[in-house]
Every structure is written in structure tokens, then in C-alpha cells.
Amino acid sequence: MSSQAVRRLILIGLMIAIAGLITSINPVFLTLGNLQKLFQEAAQVGIIAVGFTLVMITAGIDMSIGGIVAITAMVSINILSYTKIPVPVFVPLLLLVGAFVGFINGYLITKFKLPEFIVTLAVRSVLSGLALVIAVKDSLGFVQNVYIQNDQYLWFGTQTFGSIYRTTIAFVILGVATQLFIKNTRAGTNIYAAGANPVAAKLSGVNTERTVLGVYVFSGICASMAAIFISSRMMTAMPELGIGSEMDVIASVVIGGTPFTGGVGDIWGTMLGSLFLALIKNGILKTGISPWYQPIAIGGIIVVTVIVDVWQKKAHEKLTARAKLRKLDAEARKSAA
Amino acid sequence: MTTQTNTNDDLLVCKQIVKSYNGPLVLDRVDFSVKRGEVHALVGENGAGKSTIIKVITGATNRNSGDMMFDGQVIPLNHSRNNAQDLGIGVIFQELSLIPGMTVAQNIFLTKEPFFPGTRFINHRLMNRNAQELIDRYQFPLKATDVIDKLSIAQRQLVEILKAMSMNAKLMIMDEPTSSLTKTEVAMLFEIIRKLKSDGISVLYISHRMEEIYALADRVTVLRDGKLVAVLEKEQISPAEIIRLMIGHKLEENALSHKLEPKDGEVVLEVKDLTSVGKFEKVSFKLHEGEILGLGGLVGSGRTEVVRAIYGIDPIDEGSITYLGKPYKPSVLRSIKSGIGFIPEERRLQGILATLSITHNIGITNLDRLAPKFVLNLKKEGEFSREGIKLVNVKPPVPEQLVGNLSGGNQQKVVLAKWLIRNLKLVIIDEPTVGIDIGAKDEIYTHIKNLASQGVSILLVSSDLPELTRLSDRIIVLRKGRVFTEFKDCVVTSEKILRAASGILEEA
User: Which site among A63, A251, B339, B493 is 20 to 30 Å from B390 CA-CA?
Assistant: First the structure.
């Protein structure tokens, strides 16, 4: 069994154990209503994390995702408040907001060879300010908390299909489609190659610049998509929406087994990771622990995950080295005999 | 009596040094000594054991057996870098080990910064003064407060030298110090080496460049295949003699000489007056169908730069390329499309995708066939992978295996395979067998030969002279960015190539 499969089985086992523990403390955990919300929560983070995973596979990072969520929500609330454009027309266009920001990120990174972290962090700052600037204000100039009453808009985040929230369904569709994309298309292969070794990839004919640009655009689109579902679910949107969600997204991706070093990772892992994270958050609430402990738990989990990964890698190397030695030994004995 | 004085003269004495990295002997009972205040050159082909003996002396690795004495003190078997520093052995590495953001003084006194008395606060003024004194003593063109980033490579080397001097180095080891210096900078370095010598400091100088050794060295030690071949005294030193010793005579006659037989098929590639300013100048040659054209020359002679330009990685300033009878403007994508393959030097840095499987590594250059539209044909990718693995005999023959976990030889085979399963007309191969065991080497040679016999033209760059002479049908030697000479239709030897690369023309 591959070390990736082992890792996943451990993660799933751990989730089952944690779920059992939570249920034993508070049986409400296992009710349909709670599970629905848990999966929706996982989906809201997970949709962003899907795009983020591709960025991480290219050995990059996108710190602007929270800003993209905020700006998309603000654009949306403006359209809802001031225009009569029908939802089916403008909602798909909202994805262009993220695509545009992602393009800017990618362009700056590939054209000027700037560090991903700084570029996207700066863009995040710009976006969080811009979100406040364009937020709907009252006559005194204070940011107004607009309640969304458009039923068509609320269709996305507040309705279920069967007994599953539409957000969750969207997440699963996006996740599966993206997984198929990165494993089964030329562009997907290029993403892995660009992250594994950009020089070798380039010499093999991969257009690494276009590939990197593409993943930032995709990351932006995913963040905008999440913004639609989250604002719809909350039936409102504040300019701070999504700011700070980077932590949850990074945690999901890292728990899912996509390292910061690039060239490795997939969406199945990220989907598991976001579910794991939602489970922990939900568990903290359901077991009566103060929600203030959520960020502490998330930070701790990231560190533990990274430690375990490093440890597992070392153990794996040790095992292969030992196997090699044994083989050499056997050969030596054979030639001696 | 004479032996007695000799021993006192010797700063470093190594006797019967043996070193092996779990396998063949890299150093086989080598005797080696450096006298006080001499410039001692260490020469040998790639793999002769030069770097290993340096590593043994500086404590970067440990010898298996043999005695070493430095300045009258016995160097224990578990030698270390710190120990070497304490003894007074300084090294100037090819890749300099300075910290870019810091000043000259900070670098010189790193971990030895002077404090204000009774405190742990650094006395910057004193540190700068001490550094400046050291600089002035050797009249280096430096200021103690210069930041490393702003210095040229040559100046950085000086800082390295000062760093070693500040630790009272008695022996200064310089590993190919001139490889990235300009002419005037080399002259300056030579002045400094002579000054060090007159101060009684010994210099151990490693270089491929015969003229430098001739100009500097008091004595030369020649290594070959991990064994000591000869120690030449000043009056015995001549470039031709050194080269003869490096290559060795016996081998020369059978294994290493090779009759060149140029192929005169159709011209596949013609390069005319190719120039890239500062890298190479007016390089011209023709490559015929099914021919293996070897590019020889020292490291830095422009070989790699020429082939990179032809493949379309680096831009060309002047000159023209004709490929398959048509003018060709290189770009990586165009090259791949039109049947050119490229196997780069430095496999780990440029060749492999370590975190990906053999299948994906082989697939990456064949995406045009695997995914003509958009969707990747996974079944076909698997077939390509199995075909490639079988073709070059990758071990283990497991398509899912991550390439990073393969041995060096098998990694190189994968790099080979991703091109071999394509319909190629021209392959550029740069240093195909560096760091590869002999078995894998032979296999790779067979593949290169087979390719040529199938009509594929090959441009081969190699510093491994036996490899170059054995594989090539014709050899061009580059020197300082220009074509120096061409070998065709004659018996070529490693010695001839090395002489040409060192700028010695054969008498007609």
C-alpha cells in the first residue's frame, strides 16, 4: 500500500473515532440537521481549498483568497441592492471577479517573477480595502448590513437537494471534476510538472508560465464561487466576509496531504481535509468547548500534521534504505557462495 | 639527515590514504604532501579523486585508513571541518559560502565577532577596524563595510581568503578558483597567491587549466583513478607532460583511442557564426544524419551554452541555424515539435520530476501525442511508460515508482526514455553519465549508439574524455567560447582532446 493510502486510512479512522467521541458526549452530533450543517461547513471551506490545492501543487501559495471572497460578496450585494439584473445572469458573472483577481496574481508572479506569497498578500490587502470602499453604505456613510431577500439568490446556500445542501453538492461536483482534470488532462499534468521541477518541465516543453497563471485564475474562481454560497447561506454579506479564512483553507489542504513543496497532492485529500476540519470545529461546539478554542485547535492540527508528515517521510526513507542494504547483503552473500 | 629537513619542510603529509564510499576505492593508498610556503597544484581527470582528497583534508568526509599530519600534529581518523579550521586549513570553495546580506567584516568574523568587554554586544567599530587591517595587509580592493551582494565574484573570493586568513590559515585550498573570473581578475588572484606564498602560506591549487598550473605551481601532484601517478617538481612541469600523466599511456593504446569515422549523410543541422555575447562567439559546424558529433572543451568553454541556444532555451545574438534544410529559429516548443530532444546536464536540477512517477516523467514530453486535444489518454500514457521502461531497462520496472526514489543511473534512463519513444531526428545530450555507475553507463552508451544507427543525429557534450572519444564520430573542441579545432578521420585520444581544450595545437 502506498504511503499516501496509509495516510488517508489513518485520517478516515481518526475522523470516525473523533465522531464517535463527540457523539458519546453529545448525541445531537449524529442528527441529520447537524450532519447537514457539518458537510455544508466543510463545503464552504472546501470549495476554496480545491483551487488552493492546485496552487500548492505548483509550489505556490494564494493568500488573496479571503480578499476575493470579500470583494465578490460586495459586488454581489451591490448588484442585488441597486440593480434588477436577474440572478441567473449575474451570478455566473461573479466568477469573473475571482478570475480577474487570479489573473492579476498570476500575471505579477509569472511576468515579473515576484514571490507568490508577497504578491497575493498585497492583493489581499488591496481587496479587503476595496471591499469596504464598495460596501453598501447608509446615509451617514456607515457600512450597512444588507439582508438578502432574493429567493433565487438564497437558492444556492439555504436549500437542500434531497437532504444535502446545494453547497455540499457543488463542492462534491467541483472536487470530482477538478480531480479528474488534474489527473486526466494535459493541463493537469503540466500543473504537477511545474511544481515538481519547473526547469525540467520547461525543458520538456511545458509552458510553466501559462500553467502557473492558470492555477491562480482557477483559485480565484473557486474563491468567488465560495463567496456566492456563503453569502447566500448567511443571507447577508459583510465586507469582512472570508477575510481570515486562509487559515482554514491551508489547514484543509495540508491535512489532505498536499505539501508546500509542490509536485504532490490531489483533491481527494483536500476533500477529506476540509471534512476533518469541519468535524473538529463542529465537535468543539457540540461538546460545549468555547469556540475561541477553534483557531488554537486548527493551528495545533496543522503543526501536528506537518510533524507527522516529516516523520513518515523519514521512516519511509529509513525503510527503503534498510531494504536496499538487505538486498546488497544478499547479493554479497550470493557472490561469496 | 636530508629526510629530517624534508619532514620539517612539510606542512601537510598524507600517507597511504584510503577512501571508499561503500564500494570501489575512490582513493587507493595515496601519498600526498604539501610543503611550507609552496603553491602545490593537484590535477586529474573528473573522477580521479581530487575532490575526495580535498574533502578528506578539510574534514568534509573521513578517510578509511592512512596517516595524516598537519603542521606536526596528527590528524585523527574522525577529522572534522571545525578541526581543520582550528588546525589552520582554509578552503575557498567553487560555490562561495558567504552570506549575501552581510558586510565583508561581518562575514569574516562570523561566529567570532568581538564583543564590548564584559557584554555579549558586538563591537561593530572594532570588528570593522580589524577587518580593514586584514584587508590593508594584503591590499585587497575591498572595504570592510562593503555588502557582499555588491561585490564581484572575484572580490567575494578575496573575502573568503580573508576569512581563512583571520583564522590563521597555514594552508589555503582553492578549488577551481578561476572558473568564473575575467582575465584581469585572474591576474589579480595570481598576485595574491604569490603574496600568500611569500608570507609562508601554502596554497593547494586545483585546476583544469594547464596554463595556470604552469604559471603558478611549484610542484604538481597528478592523480588518476584514485591513485597517485606522479609528483612533478618545478622544472619538470609542462602542460603536455601533465596531460600525458593524467590520461595514462597504457590505457590510451587500446581502450581510450578511437578511430573517428565521420558520416557524410544529409546535413541535418547547420550552425553558422552562432554568437551569444559573453558566452560563445562565431561557432559554426554541420551535423549529418546518424552522426554523433562530440563537443569537447573545459568547463566554461561554452559547450553547454551552445547546445542550450540551439534547443531554444537561451537567446542567440547573432548567426544562423539551418535545420532539415530550412532556416530555424529555436524555441523549446518548436524544437520538441520538430523532432529535437534535449537531455540536460544536472539530472536532478533539470532532468527529472522527482515527485512524479516514471509514467508521468515519460509522459511529459509526449503530451502532444497523449493529449492531442485536452483529455489525457491514461491508457496510452501507461503504454508509453511500459515501452520506455522496457526500451532502456529501468529498474525497478514499475511505472508507478516515483523517479526521485530511483538510483542516479535509472533516473537518467528515464530522462532518456521520455525522448527515445518519440520520433526524433536530433538529440542534444549534455553530460549523460555524471554520477552514474559503470553498468548503467554502458547501457546508456548502447542506447546512444543505437539511436545514431537508426539515423538520429546526436550532439554530445561531455567532460568525460573516454566517453567523448568512444561515442563520437567527429569531435569539435571549444575553447573560450570559440571552436578551437576539429577532429575527424583520424585516431583520437583523450590526450589529444585535453591538449586542444587546454589550447595546445598539434604540430602538423
Answer: B339
By the CB < 8 Å criterion, does B422 face chain A?
no
pLDDT for the residue B265: 81
ipTM entry? 0.78
pTM of the model: 0.78
Task: Answer yes or no: is pLDDT of B135 > 80.
Answer: yes
Give a three-class secondary structure readout of A195-240.
HHCHHHHHHCCCCHHHHHHHHHHHHHHHHHHHHHHHHHHHCECCCC
Compute CA A180 distance to the chain's CA centroid, rounded to the nearest angstrom. 17
CA angle B36, B39, B41 (to 5 degrees): 125
DSSP state of B90: E
CA distance B31 to A190: 53
Choose among B342, B355, B364: nearest Cβ to A206. B364
**Which CATH number belongs to the domain containing residue B29 in this structure?**
3.40.50.300
How many domains is chain A partitioned into structurally?
Answer: 1
Q: Give me the numbers of helices (H) and strands (E) for chain A, helices first please.
A: 13, 2
Amino acid at A26: N
A299 contact partners, CB below 8 Å, separation of at least 6: A247
Cβ-contact B68, B45 below 8 angstroms: no
A74 found inside a domain: yes
Average pLDDT, chain B: 86
Residues A278 and A141: their CA atoms lie apart, in Å, by: 37
A301 part of a folded domain: no
- Residues on chain B touching A318 (C-beta within 8 angstroms): none
| Positions of E strands within A119-163 | 160-161
Segment among B82-96, B160-174, B404-418 with least mean pLDDT: B82-96
Output Rg (C-alpha) for chain A, integer angstroms. 22
Name which of B336, B325, B393 is nearest B367 in CA terms.
B336
Grid coordinates standing for A266? Answer: 490531489
Confidence of residue B95 (pLDDT cuts 50, 70, 90): low
